[in-house]
């Protein structure tokens, strides 16, 4: 075969993609991720729906657990999609986060081990959580209930979690406020599509109010660009706009629009477990590595 033919074949898009994936896998395997010196608690939030909150929660959790971290996911969305993706039971009669917030059950009593990867656990959500917003109104310290349960559980553990991820519903009700009060850090997924920044200024104002009045430790530490399609000028423009507005918070890693990422939850898995070699899986592994290596922002008076 002529050398020119071999050269042409080696430069096909598929060959370039395979070579790129191999290079990225090698880079991920070459350096172990550092573990935090205290538990990092993230709330994954965006008032806009369909931006990849749950997908980001379960895949970052799975990626960090695969790297050797001890990880807990708290599913605070009544839809229970994070519970489904992590393969844990969440039928209506299952002990869940509802029992913790409304019934004062210890957090440890409702945690389930996920079969997904490594040392990964989940506090499931059930349909009962849909009525929790109304029930919380009359309870004492209604904004602090998740925080108190989580703090108590972490203090009782011989080896506390390295990471806790809280998956929120796409609204700013009492459930989401509980998540913000319980967290040290906020991670905001932003889709690389039209109206991506819509409502973001209001979300940031709400977070600022919660930081001022309820949780001085709260910090918007991370913004992750999701559903990126490199073939469109719009996606590139949105990505640049977000980077211009939030140069310190935006991760270098971008999550591409991927069929595999969308398929994985229907099999009760993250994309990390469903198709480890896919571009979506590699991107979430890289995002998790970036979060781990960045470390937690230093906040005075942090309790964890």
Q: What does this molecule look like?
A:
The chain is α/β, with parallel strands linked by helices. It folds into two domains: 1-30; 37-294, Rossmann fold (3-Layer(aba) Sandwich), CATH 3.40.50.300. The protein has 13 helices and eight strands. It has helices spanning 3-10, 13-30, 53-66, 81-85, 97-101, 132-136, 145-156, 174-182, 200-213, 233-245, 259-263, 271-274, 279-294; strands spanning 40-44, 70-75, 112-113, 119-123, 163-167, 185-191, 219-228, 250-256. May play a role in septum formation. Residues 40-219 form the AAA domain. Belongs to the ParA family.
What is this structure's SSE topology?
Elements: H1 3-10, H2 13-30, E1 40-44, H3 53-66, E2 70-75, H4 81-85, H5 97-101, E3 112-113, E4 119-123, H6 132-136, H7 145-156, E5 163-167, H8 174-182, E6 185-191, H9 200-213, E7 219-228, H10 233-245, E8 250-256, H11 259-263, H12 271-274, H13 279-294
Parallel strand pairs: 1-5, 1-6, 2-4, 2-5, 6-7, 7-8
Antiparallel strand pairs: 3-4
Helix pairs in contact: 2-13, 3-13, 7-8
* Chain oligomer state: single chain
The CATH superfamily title of the largest domain: P-loop containing nucleotide triphosphate hydrolases
Write the element-wise H/E pattern from the N-terminal end onward: HHEHEHHEEHHEHEHEHEHHH
Number of helices: 13
User: Which CATH architecture of the largest domain would you pick?
Assistant: 3-Layer(aba) Sandwich
Instruction: Please count the beta strands (DSSP E, at least 2 residues each).
Output: 8
CATH class value of the largest domain: Alpha Beta
* Spatial shape: globular
CATH topology annotation of the largest domain = Rossmann fold
Strand content: 15-25%
- Quote the distance from N terminus to C terminus: 64 Å
Q: How many domains?
A: 2
**Main sheet properties:** 8 strands, mixed
Low-confidence stretches: 5-9
Mean pLDDT: 89
Q: Biggest sheet, strands in spatial order?
A: 3-4-2-5-1-6-7-8
Question: Could you tell me the radius of gyration in angstroms?
Answer: 20 Å
Helix content: 40-55%
């Amino acid at each position: 075969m002529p050398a020119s033919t071999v050269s042409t074949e080696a430069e096909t898009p598929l060959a370039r993609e395979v070579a790129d994936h191999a290079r990225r896998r090698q880079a991920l395997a070459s350096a172990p991720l550092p573990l935090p010196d205290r538990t990092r608690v993230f709330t994954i939030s965006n008032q806009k729906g369909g931006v990849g909150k749950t997908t980001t929660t379960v895949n970052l959790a799975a990626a960090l657990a695969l790297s050797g971290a001890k990880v807990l996911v708290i599913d605070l969305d009544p839809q229970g999609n994070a519970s489904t993706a992590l393969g844990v039971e969440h039928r209506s009669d299952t002990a869940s986060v509802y029992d913790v917030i409304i019934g004062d059950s210890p957090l440890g009593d409702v945690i389930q081990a996920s079969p997904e990867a490594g040392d990964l656990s989940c506090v499931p959500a059930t349909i009962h959580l849909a009525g929790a917003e109304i029930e919380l109104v009359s309870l004492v310290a209604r904004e602090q209930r998740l925080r108190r349960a989580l703090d108590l559980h972490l203090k009782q553990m011989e080896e506390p979690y390295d990471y806790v991820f809280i998956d929120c519903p796409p609204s700013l009700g009492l459930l989401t406020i509980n998540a913000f009060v319980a967290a040290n850090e906020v991670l905001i997924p932003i889709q690389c599509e039209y109206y991506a920044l819509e409502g973001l200024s209001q979300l940031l104002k709400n977070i600022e109010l919660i930081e001022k009045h309820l949780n001085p430790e709260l910090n918007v530490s991370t913004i992750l660009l999701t559903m990126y399609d490199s073939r469109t000028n719009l996606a590139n423009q949105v990505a640049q706009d977000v980077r211009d507005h939030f140069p310190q918070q935006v991760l270098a890693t971008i999550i591409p629009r991927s069929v595999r990422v969308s398929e994985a939850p229907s099999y009760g898995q993250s994309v990390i477990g469903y198709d480890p070699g896919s571009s979506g899986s590699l991107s979430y592994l890289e995002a998790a590595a970036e979060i781990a290596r960045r470390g937690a922002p230093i906040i005075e008076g942090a309790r964890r």
